[in-house]
Write a structure and sequence with these properties.
The chain is an alpha/beta fold and 216 residues long. It has a single domain, classed as Rossmann fold. The protein has six helices and twelve strands. The strands form three sheets. Strands 1, 4, 5, 6, 7, 8, 9 and 10 form an eight-stranded mixed β-sheet that branches. A two-stranded antiparallel sheet has the order 2-3. Helix 1 packs antiparallel against helix 2 and helix 2 packs across helix 3. The longest helix is centred in the N-terminal third of the chain and has 20 residues. It is globular. The mean pLDDT is 96. It binds uracil (URA). The site of uracil has 9 residues, from helix 6.
Length: 216
């Protein structure tokens, strides 16, 4: 099931506009903060479709009944661009387990690239709700490769893929590979460049959040 949050106009549009805006992008702290805010909003939206149960709590004046999420959530973060998005989600799901995966594009001379996974740290996923975060869902190959790597840590009850901006191609690929999953997007763009950057997109999310790196 696809959930496109920008379909309903809200303050979320402001945060995405600032992420995309070249005039605002030199402020990397604002860039990271907006990614965190989108993580918080998306986690809140995801929480609406998770099973809940009621609990009773003692207040100073009596007893109150509240609905709380029943699921054990694990939030997966694809390093490094996913870090602020992950942090925002973790502020909402503050009891969640956490998985970290390094996935990077190894570019070839002919313009193609492979996704290399070097590092995985993950709790047991058996029966849990996995939310896999990658802010930029371009071709979908990092998301799918990462999900495949995580399945070695147990079969989750449900998988939620979460991205800030997706390209149609990446969305279609993830949907094809994981038809039963939930896919959460803040915005959906139509194009990819030859180097698989999203257009209009926002550029390189990792560089904008954490600075330029030496190119491999
Ligand atoms: N990763 C990014 O940071 N930006 C894109 O447009 C695609 C992948």
């Amino acid at each position: 099931m696809i959930h496109l949050l920008s379909e309903q106009p809200s303050v979320l549009g402001q945060f995405i506009a600032e992420l995309r805006d070249t005039n605002a992008q030199s402020d990397s702290m604002r860039f990271r903060t907006n990614m965190e805010r989108l993580g918080e909003i998306m986690a809140y939206e995801i929480s609406k479709v998770l099973p809940t149960h009621t609990i009773q709590v003692d207040t100073p004046l009596g007893q109150a009944t509240e609905s709380v999420p029943s699921e054990q959530v694990v939030i997966g973060c694809i390093l490094r661009a996913g870090l602020p998005f992950h942090n925002g989600m973790l502020r909402m799901f503050d009891r969640a387990g956490n998985a970290f995966i390094s996935a990077y594009r190894k570019h070839h001379k002919d313009g193609t690239f492979d996704i290399n996974i070097q590092y995985v740290s993950c709790p047991d996923l058996t029966g849990k709700t996995l939310i896999l975060t990658d802010p930029m869902l371009a071709t979908g190959s990092s998301m799918v490769k990462t999900a495949e790597a995580l399945m070695e840590y147990g079969t989750p009850r449900e998988i939620h893929f979460a991205a800030i901006i997706a390209a149609r191609e990446g969305l279609d690929y993830v949907r094809r590979m994981y038809p039963k999953s939930h896919i959460w997007l803040s915005a959906l763009d139509e194009e990819l460049t030859a180097k698989a950057y999203i257009v209009p997109g926002l550029g390189d999310a990792g560089d904008l959040a954490y600075g330029l790196k030496v190119q491999e």
